Amino acid sequence: MTLSADQIVEMTEVLVILMGIGITWAVYYGSDRAELPGEAVVPDPHEADDAVPDTRGRTLG
Q1: What is the pLDDT of residue 59?
Q2: What is the pLDDT of residue 32?
Q3: What is the pLDDT of residue 5?
Q4: From CA 46, how far away is CA 33, in angstroms rounded?
Q5: Residue 57 · residue 33 · CB < 8 Å
Q6: How many C-beta atoms lie closer than 10 Å to residue 38's C-beta?
Q7: What is the Cα 27 distance to its own chain's centre?
Q8: pLDDT tens per residue across span 9-61
Q9: CA angle, corner 13, sides to 16 and 26, nearest 5?
Q10: Ramachandran class of 4: left when φ > 0, alpha when ψ lies in -120 to 50, beta otherwise
């Protein structure tokens, strides 16, 4: 079974739309828990820095 040129174009359009929806979902999923500017806690300057920085909420994972 072979696809015609019109079928290939239509299938490509559908896949691009689905990819756009998927990318949009991946970007906005969980964004309500993201740390916003001005909400970060200012550390005490007299305490030592953490050995491992806290990176929670700053990645897509």
Answers
A1: 57
A2: 75
A3: 94
A4: 29
A5: yes
A6: 5
A7: 3
A8: 999 999 999 999 999 998 888 777 776 777 777 778 888 877 777 667 655 55
A9: 20
A10: beta
Q: d(Cα 19, Cα 17) in Å, to the nearest integer?
A: 5
Rounded distance between C-alpha atoms, residue 5 and residue 51, angstroms: 58
For residue 3, give the DSSP letter.
Answer: -
Task: Tell me which residue of 61, 29, 16, 31 sits closest to 8, measured CA to CA.
Answer: 16
Measured in residues, the chain has a length of 61
Residue 6 — very low, low, confident or very high, per pLDDT cuts 50/70/90?
A: very high
Would you list the DSSP string of 13-55? HHHHHHHHHHHHHHHHTTGGGSPPTT-SPPPPTTSPPPSS---
Give the pair of three-digit tokens for residue 29: 């999923």
